[in-house]
Amino acid sequence: LKTQVMSYSERITHCSHPLTRKLLSIMDKKKTNLCLSADLTSSQAILSIVDKVGGNVCMVKTHVDIVEDFSQDFVQKLVQLSEKHDFMIFEDRKFGDIGHTVQQQYKGGMYKIADWADIVTTHVVPGSGVVRGLKEVGLSRQRGCVLVAEMSSTGTLAKGDYSKAAVRIAHENKDFVIGFICQSNLTKDPDLIHMTPGVRLDVSGDALGQQYISPSSAIRDLHTDIIIVGRGILTADNPVAMAEQYQESGYHAYQELLT
Ligand code: 5FU
Q1: Do 219 and 34 form a contact (C-beta atoms < 8 A)?
Q2: Has 97 been annotated as catalytic?
Q3: How many Cβ atoms from other residues are within 10 Å of residue 14's Cβ?
Q4: Ligand 1 centre distance from Cα of residue 88 (Å)
Q5: CA 13 to ligand 1 center in whole angstroms
Q6: Is the pLDDT of residue 3 over 80?
């Protein structure tokens, strides 16, 4: 039995958070539910691949703490690329401490994440205080956050009641939480976007517990909204052609849901 799914444009009319609306409108306009996980260690390499595939993605996800030559100039250039190609910047920081500490990690230190990242991820293991702490920093800057409700890795402890608690924390903080990192559909609330890492076409895992599903499994079978792809694109012989292929697979799976 097929569950009827709303189109991106229809869903915009049912959701209230400005960032969710912006993300859905990018997805609709650019016909993409692909997020590139730009897990490279040199700023030039990141900026170069992002400029090449920027047109194919709705978001670019970073791990800023793996960049060897981090500078504010790098993130300024990333922001310029996000304006040029119209995508959102998503720092996968996975905060996981008490509210007071994460506030400083979010706005301060050498990265000043809140200055340039539209969206950040956080674990919910500390309880809702982590979200309230981030919110005090992010709300006035029109930022949002995504809760790690489930993980793609083998043996993950983020499941069952833990994932349910993440959904509850999201519902209680909808002024700031715009969705989940997850491996399944966790709520029908149109405001909350489901983002799924561990997506790849050619292999089923890596040597350190990563587990992959295909774009169509994520979008069509599991009813998540966004596919997050790193090495599937980054290690390909032709990353641009591969980004196009992931974009098409993900978007085709979404269209199959609509018919
Ligand atoms: F929360 C998660 C998760 O459950 N699985 C993940 O793989 C995050 N990730 C991130 O997605 C991980 O840190 C990488 O940045 C990315 C997946 O990269 P891959 O190269 O496509 O395996």
Answers
A1: no
A2: yes
A3: 13
A4: 17
A5: 30
A6: no
For the segment 195-225, what is each residue's pLDDT rounded down to a tens digit?
Answer: 999 999 999 999 999 999 999 999 999 999 9
Is there a catalytic annotation at residue 118? no
Scored b (16 or more CB within 10 A) or e, 239-256 reads: beebbbbbbebbbebbee
What region does 230 belong to: left with phi over 0, alpha with psi -120 to 50, or beta?
A: alpha
Catalytic-labelled residue, pool 28, 39, 86, 97: 97
How far is residue 256 CA from its own chain's centroid?
22
Instruction: Read off the tokens for 7.
Output: 């189109």
The ipTM (two decimal places) reads 0.99
| Atom 18, ligand 1: residue with shortest CA distance | 230
- Pocket lining: 91 vs ligand 1, CB cutoff 6 Å: no
Q: Encoding tokens for residue 129?
A: 């205080």
The bridge status of strand 193-196 relative to strand 226-229 is parallel
**What is the rounded CA–CA span in Å between residue 78 and residue 73?**
9
- Please, which residues have CB within 8 angstroms of residue 86's CB and are 6 or more apart in sequence? 26, 29, 30
Amino acid at 21: R
Give the separation between CA 50 and CA 45, rounded to whole angstroms. Answer: 8
* Residue 85, token pair as written in the block: 């190609």
DSSP H or E run through 218: none
Ligand 1, atom nearest to 158 Cα = 4
The answer, as to whether pTM is greater than 0.90, is yes
Residue with CA at minimum distance from ligand 1 atom 21: 230
